[in-house]
Amino acid sequence: MNNQRWMSQNFFAFYMTWGIFLPYWTGFLVEAKGLTISQASLIMSCSLAIRGISTLFAFPYIARKWSSKRVLDLFAILSLLIMLLFIPASSFSSLLVVTLLFSFFFPALMPALDSVAGILLQHGQLHYGQSRSYGSLGFVVMVFIASVITGQFGDMAILWLLLGGLILLVLLNTRPAPAVLLEKPKGASANKFSVKKLLQAPNFLIVLIIAILLQGAHASYYNYGYIYLQELGVAKYYIGLIINIGVFFEILFFAKSDRLFGHWKPANLLLVAAIGSTLRWLMVSLVPTIPIFIVSQSLHAVSFALAHFAVILFFTQNLQKEQIPNAQGMYNAFAMGWSTAILTLFGGFLYEMEPRLAFLGMTVCTVPALFLALYLRKKA
């Protein structure tokens, strides 16, 4: 199979499931399972912490022992099996336990896929942005489907949609994979893991900190955006459409990113991302209206997609092949996991005081990221 097509289809299948879990799961716990916002926030924060442990330790360890294809298969199958446990779970404690188990395996598919993409990219067998745009397209498709179905059948449908998406993901993983992904790590490369050495790589730590701040700043949007739009009076049928506006711009960015930004320095890309992210959260918080929220969605291409592309570009340009899974694990653990977990609790506290404060509070991350990006730009 064509490597570009294989990677595109895998991104599409995974982000279809992510398009259910990310924007809808807090709402599912509240509306379908009867938890309070505080209880749901605690569960999601704990799940992000577990996600960080998994992507920082479990994923890199397994990636050093097994082939990339086998790693993908393992995490996909275990995610599907654990998802079945959500059907009987109804109490806070049972939902907490099952969510923690699910969060140990399911989100690890993200760094696994990006590591695979990084390997193919280093071998000159992939245009990352083009394939990643299919992931965003899958996200859009499922968010739209979920918004329509939940409006018709209620929030319990979120569970069945995610279960169906995971079944599709497992089935797609039965296809033949590119040969380089079937190779098992050998010898010194398989055991070569040094956090100290990775942190000593030029500018790696600065890039990681900027990524932590920028990606973590999406915590309020990811966890409370669905509820916030309901607060603004948006019908459930239209919430998915509004969320999809941001992903639509994300798709446009990824589709053109290789050609337009592939030659840019990661430092310059991170600076633009920090500026756009700060502007986005200021718009949402200072002018709490539906039209401004819709307009701010265009900045998702900058606050998330551009920042993510810059990190992937930095990894592939500055790290060795055997370092990429470890770097991806750290990036996903700290930037996509633990920072978001902490800021979810912070955002939840602010949201209960005043909903728009949850978004304004995210600028405590984006402004320092802006100054760090300026420093990196001068240093690089």
Automatic annotation (TrEMBL):
One cellular component (GO) term of this entry: plasma membrane
Transmembrane domains' residue ranges: 12-30, 36-59, 71-89, 95-121, 133-151, 157-177, 198-217, 237-255, 267-294, 300-319, 331-351, 357-376
Membrane topology: Multi-pass membrane protein
NCBIfam families found in the cross-reference section: mfs, PRK11128.1
Listed name of the protein: 3-phenylpropionate MFS transporter
Location in the cell: Cell inner membrane
Domain Major facilitator superfamily associated per the UniProt entry, residue ranges: 6-359
Keyword set includes Chaperone: no
GO molecular-function terms, A-Z: lactose binding; lactose:proton symporter activity
Pfam family name, one: MFS_1_like
Signal peptide span: none
Chief location of this protein within or outside the cell: membrane
Keywords: Cell inner membrane, Cell membrane, Membrane, Transmembrane, Transmembrane helix, Transport
SUPFAM superfamilies reported for this sequence: MFS general substrate transporter
